[in-house]
Amino acid sequence: MQRKFKHSKKSIFYIVSMEYKKKWIEDTIWNKDQIKLGICVKENNELIGFCSLIKINLVNGSAEISIMIRDNQYWGKGLGSEVILLLSDFAFSERGFNRIWALILENNIASRRMCEKCGYKTEGVLRRSIYKNGKFQNQVIMSILQEDFYQMLKEKRTD
Ligand SMILES: CC(C)(COP(=O)(O)OP(=O)(O)OC[C@H]1O[C@@H](n2cnc3c(N)ncnc32)[C@H](O)[C@@H]1OP(=O)(O)O)[C@@H](O)C(=O)NCCC(=O)NCCS
Q1: CA 50 to ligand 1 centroid distance, Å
Q2: Which of 10, 71, 87, 120 has a CA between 20 and 30 Å from the CA of residue 114?
Q3: How many CA within 13 A on the CB side of residue 12?
Q4: Please, where are the H alpha helices in 12-143?
Q5: How many angstroms separate the alpha carbon of residue 134 from the centre of ligand 1?
Q6: Per-residue pLDDT at 75
């Protein structure tokens, strides 16, 4: 397995062999602790981002949700909210989860707003809980419970 470092302005990433990529995809598909999905544009199937449910805890019926839309030309058009709603619905309806939570950088206003629009409530602030971009930063924890989710869908339908 060959691994090389490559530097970009913001981050360091690896260049890996096809063999390594294939194994990563297979491991990800069969990993029971997480579900990772691509986000594609319906019209042309272009892959524009990823979303996931990670840290799945079957005893507590909980998981952490996350999303990344790589290309900022797609931001601010409601796509993020659509994905969070669909993935939350999948988690509650198909998997019977009880609680979904998200950890968001305190200054990531777009992500906080997106979660808020999807019915997620802020539970609190984890002070200086992550080292990112050269400094310790606060994270906000937001969550939604199954019953809150269904109630929100009911209210949206009657609007
Ligand atoms: C977070 C992310 C997925 C949001 O996707 P999106 O498609 O832009 O989300 P939506 O359009 O559904 O909602 C974003 C909301 O934030 C608002 N918003 C964005 N930037 C804002 C700012 N600086 N101040 C106030 N509101 C802002 C938008 O106006 C929109 O709210 P509105 O519909 O009420 O107008 C996308 O920005 C992204 O991938 N960012 C990089 C990765 C990331 O931060 N992931 C989250 C980690 S948990």
Answers
A1: 15
A2: 10
A3: 4
A4: 18-30, 79-89, 109-117
A5: 23
A6: 96
Q: Give yes or no for residue 140 CB within 6 A of ligand 1.
A: no
Regarding whether 94 and 26 lie in a shared domain, the answer is no
Give the three-state DSSP class for 48.
strand
Query: What's the number of domains the chain is made of?
Result: 2
Domain carrying residue 104: 31-158
Euclidean distance between CA atoms 133 and 86, whole angstroms: 31
Q: What is the pLDDT of residue 2?
A: 46
The CATH code of the domain that includes 72 is 3.40.630.30
- Please report, as a single letter, which amino acid is at residue 154: K
pLDDT (0 to 100) of residue 11: 57
Flag residues of the chain having pLDDT under 70: 1-13
Is the CB–ligand 1 distance for residue 25 below 6 Å?
no
Which protein residue's CA is at the shortest distance from atom 13 of ligand 1? 114
